[in-house]
Amino acid sequence: MSKAPMTDAELASHLAEVAGRILIEVRDSGAFEGKALGKAGDATANEFLVHALKAQRPEDGLLSEEEKDDAERLKMERVWIIDPVDGTREYGEQRSDWAVHVGLSIGGVATIGAVALPGLDGGTVMRTDQIHELPKPASAPRFLVSRTRPAKEAVAVSEAMGGELVGMGSAGAKAMAVVRGDAEIYLHSGGQYEWDSCAPVAVAAAHGLHCSRIDGSPIRYNRADPYLPDLLICRPEYAERVLELVAGLDASD
């Protein structure tokens, strides 16, 4: 008796998990260090994900950070948007705050996805079809920022709200920290691409978090230019205040 085909969410989760295991094996092989490890991991995970998606969903479009862009995707309703290693620097440094993103944009909306965190808790996959209740928030909001380049908007808004800055690596790790209850707000304005946020936004939205651009507009995917410079992922009770403060910063510039 043949197996039932995997749903899109099951496929995303399975591929993210397997890519994560592959990346751990590449890292633990000892054959690469530093930047060379990052390059080897990116190439190996990308090859697996691209081949698997083309085999499993041949009619869908594909956009990957590590693959030459194909404009044919712009004609397609369904486009897989992947980042084989989100946080290549952290992966190369053998830290835990990196991720694997497998997201599916349908009609320009991040609809289905999985974010694997292979270096965390022995490997964790957050997904759109397995929802858990958000943990109780901290008394003062924790803002996730870059370890080396905290966004000025995040710094200013955190100060205005009496919040705390928490440095972390990859975009996926930051977004999933909000889902996991390790922080309340991820406000980013330093420049990203669609593959940095598609899967995390899909997972965050499925868990009831607010997801938007920092001007409050919707986040759109599968555009001709995949550059997507800013986003806000936060607990819904903070969204209005954060957007109000960001708008105030823009008005004062």
Task: For this entry, give a set of tags.
253 residues, alpha/beta, Fructose-1,6-Bisphosphatase, Chain A, domain 1, D-Maltodextrin-Binding Protein, domain 2, 2 domains, five-stranded mixed β-sheet, 7 helices, 10 strands
Give a description of the structure.
- The chain has 253 residues and is α/β, with parallel strands linked by helices.
- It folds into two domains: 8-127, Fructose-1,6-Bisphosphatase, Chain A, domain 1 (2-Layer Sandwich); 142-252, D-Maltodextrin-Binding Protein, domain 2 (3-Layer(aba) Sandwich), CATH 3.40.190.
- It is 39% helix and 22% strand.
- It contains seven helices and ten strands.
- It has helices spanning 8-28, 34-56, 88-92, 152-160, 171-180, 194-206, 236-252; strands at residues 61-64, 78-86, 99-106, 109-117, 124-127, 142-146, 164-168, 185-188, 210-212, 231-234.
- A five-stranded mixed β-sheet has the order 1-2-3-4-5, sandwiched between helices.
- Strand 3 (99-106) and strand 4 (109-117) form a beta hairpin.
- Helix 5 (171-180) packs parallel to helix 6.
- The longest helix is centred in the first third of the chain and has 23 residues, at 34-56.
- The model has no long low-confidence stretch (mean pLDDT 95).
